[in-house]
Amino acid sequence: MVPHLVTALTGPINELEQRVLDSMSAIERWFRLEWMEHTPPFYCSVDLRNAGFKLAPVDTNLFPRGWQNLAGPMLPLAVQAAMAAIEKICPEARNLLIIPENTTQNTFYLSNLVQLRRIFHMAGLNVRIGSINPAIKKSTLIELPHGDSITLEPVIRLRGRLGVKDFDPCTILLNNDLRAGVPGILEDINEQYLLPPLHAGWSSRRNSAHFKCYEEVAKRFGKLIGIDAWLIYPMYETCGVVDFGTDDGMLHLSRKVDAMLAKVKKKYKEYGIKEKPFVVVKADNSSNGMGLLTVRDSKELVALRQTGGVHDIVLQEGVLTHERMHDAVAEPVVYLMDRYVVGGFYRVHAERNVDENLNAPGASYVPLTFAESMHLPQPGVRPGASVPNRFYMYGVVARLAMLAASYELEASDPQNEESA
Amino acid sequence: MVPHLVTALTGPINELEQRVLDSMSAIERWFRLEWMEHTPPFYCSVDLRNAGFKLAPVDTNLFPRGWQNLAGPMLPLAVQAAMAAIEKICPEARNLLIIPENTTQNTFYLSNLVQLRRIFHMAGLNVRIGSINPAIKKSTLIELPHGDSITLEPVIRLRGRLGVKDFDPCTILLNNDLRAGVPGILEDINEQYLLPPLHAGWSSRRNSAHFKCYEEVAKRFGKLIGIDAWLIYPMYETCGVVDFGTDDGMLHLSRKVDAMLAKVKKKYKEYGIKEKPFVVVKADNSSNGMGLLTVRDSKELVALRQTGGVHDIVLQEGVLTHERMHDAVAEPVVYLMDRYVVGGFYRVHAERNVDENLNAPGASYVPLTFAESMHLPQPGVRPGASVPNRFYMYGVVARLAMLAASYELEASDPQNEESA
After folding, report:
1. Cβ–Cβ gap A124/B86 under 8 Å
2. In order along chain A (420 residues), what is the average pLDDT of each group of 10 residues?
3. Would you say residue B389 has pLDDT above 70?
4. CB-based burial of residue B258 (10 Å sphere; 0-12 exposed, 13-18 middle, 19+ buried)?
5. Among the four A309, A319, B377, B392, which has the fewest Cβ within 10 Å?
6. Residue-level pLDDT at A288
7. Are B122 and A340 within 8 A, CB to CB?
């Protein structure tokens, strides 16, 4: 069931893994105490990259899709976590409304909704799917492969409450990242739990805010277990608003890229790493692949000059992946609900390189029974030699990203700003 | 992985299963609300019997052993539940002390300890085993099959606290049912969490108190989903103290048995059940097989006359098992931690009959990946035809028994009596 993985079995990653395993009880206690003070995002998925010498999250999705890629034997973990989450938020809950992306055509996405509906149904809720797509004017049944089907119903707003016809939910679960902005119908919902909160959406979220929180979390965690935090975080640098169409804009970006490459190079030298550093140029207000560029040299930025436009830009240290599956480049994606790791899979892309974004057309997904492994390191087994041990470390780093998201959402909460 | 099961696919059990599946969201909500008011026992295991026409728990063990029989893929569920339990009891916990039975020879039992230690270690605790066996005078390493080993250390009492050498636990987990009485070293522990509480031990616990609570829970649950509660509970009758050595004592018992058999017969008639009713004679203060007798006719009680002695007796309606595995009689045992079903197995006995106690020498254990199934009914699948659906029902009934244990422990708590 667990595919053959090719990871670098020597070098700093094994020391990191050993440190993580040796510190397991301290780590778990630390998380317990953190979750007493901070509320985990309802759910999230974290893209990790294992470079062989460092392991870092590169993307933390607060509206995770892809649940259909989780292996069946892992589902009970998700159900149990969902039960725990619901119990805390609204123990009296009967009804849950899921608000999905607006697509009606993407069967992969719709299968993701089927899986989410299954998880919450098994946790004991009546689940309906309420679409905010203006094209969904009436209850719409969509047949899916494997005999599944999904019914999208138009969301109804009645005074302060959201629902669908004859269905008044206690909790509304957003699976829509709101990249196009917050529709009015979702605003000022005060009587129901709307999760994640609107300010987690990409209309207000910023990558740089997450990176900043993650760096802080990683540094504190690094102190806890006695490691250089750089081994678990990608450096980042905000560039502010950059006009790709002007020489000034491009020069500014180019200097920032050179500076970041120099910082990475220095770190590589410190650890005797022979790889070529690279930097990922990201739009600060989107996790989307659109507009992303990977550069090993600032000269390559010329590609952006041609696209033009004005963008709020953040640079992220590139973390290459040394994991492969059947000769294709692979990266793990870890799924979390409430404070628990509930599963994951490998995103595999045969046509991409180790320093490229794999979240692109052509990617395939290999579900892993992380279930057995995420919580279950095998003490005494040589670091790097045990898949369960590796996965425990993945679960730890993914939870650090989730914790960073919790800090991020606290800091960006408009209600906290008002009271501050 | 899931063995072939032979269960009665017709009759009331399927109606019951259909009702349970149809009421899933109401059931889960009901449990959530119950657990807001009542604390689940830290852990327990529940023996179930599926008679084809009724499904009932026949034994609820508050010091469950046999954890080693759970399937590996289920362990993450136990770990996740242990994390949830610890978080509620003592989020700052670093150290857990397990107090086991006194045996040093029973490798099955010691393997159970290895498994418990593994679960709590993975949940992030330092775990040590503190024996109250007077023969354990120093740290004692015992090698076990499959390369496992376990170290038993003598428990140390320092003023109000229990520990072992250089180890001060926050929580003490009893895996010793205290049938021989509560040793002084365990009394008056006020600074640490001692779980389950001492009054859960067999020195003070009574089967009849549990049966009473279970009957109440079952009746409320029966109303909730609209079924005759008898379909999920065994009738019981307390007999008080019976002197097996006197005619009066045996006559008293005999009348009680006849009355119980008549009640069962009436129920069988009501449902058109052709089986022969039977009654299980149990010592009220022990879940142990010792002294148990199964009788189809009060004449069979003569066997007890020969054993003599004075016993506090409770009668339980016999629930036969119609489940078989490879031609051997089987009964499911469900494991719970905190409020969650975390696994189970089939207890199988080739040399016992459908109306006999299977918890006896010669029994074997077939771990089941209940994991995938306990929380995961398959809506739309014909009742009885789906193993996952059957197991969901098992998980529900086991949780009813756990809830009854929670009521039972509240009622028997000496602190509640004092304040009442």
Report:
1. no
2. 42 81 93 96 95 93 94 84 93 95 94 95 95 96 92 94 96 94 93 95 94 98 96 96 93 96 96 93 75 86 85 93 79 94 87 80 71 48 58 93 98 74
3. no
4. middle
5. A309
6. 60
7. no
Residues 6+ apart with CB under 8 A from A42: A85, A89, A173, A195, A196, A337, A338
- Nearest C-alpha of chain B: how many angstroms from A225? 14
Residues of A in contact with B29 (CB under 8 A): 92-94, 124
| B76/A377 CB distance under 8 A | no
Q: Is B216 exposed, middle or buried (0-12, 13-18, 19+ CB in 10 A)?
A: middle
Q: Peptide bond preceding A196: is omega within 30 degrees of 0, i.e. cis? A: yes
Q: pLDDT of A336-361, one tens digit each?
A: 999 999 988 888 887 888 787 777 77
In our burial notation (b when 16+ CB lie closer than 10 A, e otherwise), range A170-181 reads bbbbbbbbbbee
Question: Closest-CA residue in chain B for A115?
Answer: B376
Residues in chain B: 420
In chain B, residues with a C-beta closer than 8 Å to the C-beta of A26 are 94
CB B317 within 8 A of CB B52: no
- The answer to whether B29 contacts A93, with C-beta atoms less than 8 Å apart, is yes
pTM: 0.90
Complex ipTM value? 0.86
